Amino acid sequence: MIKMSSIVMDELKIFDIHLEHEKLKEIAINDLLNEEKCLSFLQNQMLEMKAPNLSVAASILSKRYAYLVVSSTLYSMVEFNCVLNLPVKACALSKERQLCIQAGMCKWQEVKSIEREQWRENVLRDLFASHITPVLNILRKASRVPSSILWENVAIRVNSIYRKILAKESDPMKIERLNSDFHFLKNASGNLFNLEENPIKHYLKIGEELKLNPCRKTCCMYYKLEEDVEGIGYCGNCPIKNRQTKVRGVMQ
Question: What sequence ranges are listed for the domain Aerobactin siderophore biosynthesis IucA/IucC-like C-terminal (predicted)?
Fold first, then answer.
């Protein structure tokens, strides 16, 4: 393990990850795991996002959180064959939903003394079983949003980061690494997530499969926000928009 370098932090700022002193934190993730505090935070987020209810707020927050924590981790695994460990106790969210981290608690982990396959399993177990699963569980409890929506929100971040890397990457070693990591995630047991079954395996798609069938199975409910802050109306892979398009096509 080595300490974070300025180069690493510059890369991570692409994912809106900042050192704690750089941003004013709104809530520590340890506090978010308390149902009462989570509910209070979601109520504030509902107002900030202009969401109609807690379920929509929790869904949008989970998409954002997956980008911050999951996308950044998978990107580092492919690009650097290293990863910044992000324990729950080291993380907080700012009001703008940026990730604030305590540098002293986050270690930059390289593949060194063990095989990459074992290193990868350790990294992803820390990421999912110890971090993402508890966060999604508390969002579900506080908002009553279906867990299937929350987990597909995570999966589409996985699909997206791998798609973007594949679109620009020419290094065959990195492409092989990406494909290996993707297939490991898709075929992992529920144990990797501290769940009975793998909650994202049915949603993971890359390459030709993603091009042919880009639409989600569940809807993240972005379209229900009062303000379309991203100016997109519906997400590009929205199943509702896809169904509406098919119906219009049949009626024409």
Answer: 115-172
Using N-to-C axis directions, what is the helix angle for 72-80 and 116-127, rounded to 10°? 170
Q: Which backbone phi and psi does 17 adopt, to 5 degrees?
A: -105, 125
Look at residue 140 and tell me whether its pLDDT is greater than 70.
yes
Give φ, ψ of 221 to 5 degrees: 75, 20
Amino acid 59 reads S
Using CA atoms, how far apart are residues 26 and 19, in angstroms rounded to an integer?
14
Query: Which residues face 135 on adjacent strands?
Result: none
Asked whether 220 and 235 are in contact (CB, 8 A), the reply is yes
**The model's pTM:** 0.92
How far apart (Å, rounded) are the C-alpha atoms in residues 39 and 34? 9
